[in-house]
Amino acid sequence: MIIELESIFNTDGMKVPFDYELSLASVEVSGYAPIADPVRVSGCIENKAGIVNLTAKADLVYEAPCDRCAQNVKREFSFPVEHTLVVALESGDNDDFLEVPNMRLNLDELVEEDVNLALPTKYLCNDECKGLCPTCGKNLNEHQCDCKAPIDPRMEVLLKLLEE
After folding, report:
1. What are the per-10-residue average pLDDT scores of the chain (164 residues)?
2. Are residues 6 and 64 in the same domain?
3. Cα–Cα distance, 126 to 13 (Å, whole number)
4. How far is the C-alpha of 28 from the C-alpha of 85, rounded, in Å?
């Protein structure tokens, strides 16, 4: 969605609302596309006393395997999208402002970037997930396994001394 900003920058008090769906199914995170459903984006761009602010919310559902036990995880997320828009920056890079020199804002690209930055780095089915046994591969959330912890080869000699 491309939003023309010239009239917003030139009119104090002007407010432009938006509410639409954005497909991010092609966005890959760690080799898979966790966002299958469309992302609902709603908010507005408003000029308050010459300061143009974009305030929105992105609602989405992500689905991915748990990083510890590989069970499928499906969660709903809601991310804020907030930026102060300027036509030009007086000094180099400034992360506090979003520069739109041609007064056209590609809202899709901006939301995609913000969602990518806000997604968790690890997908877990729950915070207490025990994962899989590294020896037999059983899901430790469902069953305890009978595997013994491997002995550090540096300690084997000491273990033999205890056995004698």
Report:
1. 90 93 76 77 93 94 89 90 88 78 90 86 89 91 86 81 76
2. yes
3. 45
4. 28
Domain match, 47 and 107 both? yes
Query: How many folded domains does the chain comprise?
Result: 2
| 59: Cα within 13 Å, side-chain hemisphere | 6
My answer on whether 96 and 153 are in the same domain is no
| Tokens read off for 152 | 């550090």
Type of residue numbered 40: R
Q: Of 161, 159, 163, whose CA–CA distance to 150 is shortest?
A: 159
Same domain, 136 and 122: no
- Produce one character per residue of 17-29: b if its CB has 16 or more CB atoms within 10 Å, e if not: eeeeebebeeeeb
The one-letter code for the residue type at 157 is: V
**Six token digits for residue 121:** 């780095």
Q: What is the CA radius of gyration of the chain?
A: 25
Residue-level pLDDT at 153 = 81
Number of residues that this document lists for the chain: 164
- Domain carrying residue 78: 2-128
131: left (phi over 0), alpha (psi -120 to 50) or beta: left
